[in-house]
């Protein structure tokens, strides 16, 4: 559970995860954290989870995820194997934000 600001209500609401990444992936996460002025590298993961949750929900609705270039009026669709596996209209994904 989290409060109205998205912060965990208690230490029991926090879980530690461990997974392997390459050096270049770790460096990229550090760079993204710095560029986005995030306090911790783990905040990159939290934000990525929120973006992925939204992408899954939109894909489930039959929508495409895209980037729009206003200057050139061009649309580039996001292509991810994970999103290609999403079926339309199944159950909702739990909110990944703390």
Characteristics of this structure?
2 strands; single chain; 98 residues
Describe the structure.
- The longest helix is centred in the middle third of the chain and has 20 residues, at 41-60.
- The chain has a two-stranded antiparallel ribbon with strand order 1-2.
- The protein is mostly helical and 98 residues long.
- The mean pLDDT is 87.
- Helices cover 38% and strands 8% of the residues.
- It has a domain at 22-84.
- The protein is built from 3 helices and 2 strands, in the order ααββα.
Question: What would a concise description of this structure say?
Answer:
This protein is mostly helical and 98 residues long. The protein contains three helices and two strands; from the N terminus they run ααββα. Strands 1-2 form a two-stranded antiparallel sheet.
Mean pLDDT equals 87
Structural class comes to mainly alpha
Tell me the overall shape: globular
Low-pLDDT sequence parts: none
Number of strands: 2
Main sheet overview: 2 strands, antiparallel
Strand content: 5-15%
H/E element string? HHEEH
Report Rg: 16 Å
Helix content: 25-40%
State the helix count: 3
Gap between N and C termini:
7 Å
Spatial arrangement of strands, main beta sheet: 1-2
What is the element layout, followed by pairings?
Blueprint: H1 23-35, H2 41-60, E1 66-69, E2 74-77, H3 81-84
Antiparallel strand pairs: 1-2
Helix pairs in contact: 1-2
